[in-house]
Amino acid sequence: MKMQRLWQEETAGLHLRLIVARALLAPLPPYVGGRLRATLLRAAGFCIGRGTILWGTPTLTGSGDITRQLSIGRECWLNLGVLINLGARVHIGDRVALGHQVMILTDSHPIGRPERRAGPVFARPVRIGNGAWLGTRALVLPGVEIGAGAVVAAGAVVIQNIPPHTLVGGVPARILRKLSTGKEE
Question: Which residues form the catalytic set?
């Protein structure tokens, strides 16, 4: 019984359909087969909208049925090195662009006691609104909502919600300016 429990704990992050999809995609060089990547991940059970292009295969982590934790809208662009942690739900709206090495994290730890500062794992969902753009190496932490049409500058660390049509940057990310909504006269 102990060995069975250990086996289950140690293999909780093993996703056979994702492994098969990655093996089929492995021969493709970067920037080749972007729609094919989306199609194979869709076949593996992920919800990925039509017209979405994956310039590289994203790293998807989490335990359990991670296919239910991710939804990517239509006509999105995900560049090379994107990592999405699926300890909780991640919703990416339509026409969202993720730059190189963007990280979206849903798992974290509270500050714990002195003998182990990283407390027990907790997970919070992340939501990225339609038309948002996350620049290269942007980091989105658990529980954050990024509004529609927002832009996160390269290297920014997003620790709190970002209003729609806002440019943010820095560590931690702060509002740099409001952006046009395209509806102004």
Answer: 109
User: Residue 35: inside a domain, yes or no?
Assistant: yes
3-state secondary structure the chain: CHHHHHHHHHCCCCCHHHHHHHHHHCCCCCCCCHHHHHHHHHHCCCEECCCCEECCCCEEECCCCHHHCEEECCCCEECCCCEEECCCCEEECCCCEECCCCEECCEECCECCCCCCECCCEECCEEECCCCEECCCCEECCCCEECCCCEECCCCEECCCECCCEEEECCCCEEEEECCCCCCC
User: What are the pLDDT digits (tens) for 75-95?
Assistant: 999 999 999 999 999 999 999
In a domain, 72, yes or no: yes
Domain count, the chain: 1
Tell me the CATH number at 73: 2.160.10.10
> Longest Cα pair distance anywhere in the chain, in angstroms?
69
pTM of the model: 0.90
| Owning domain of residue 168 | 15-178
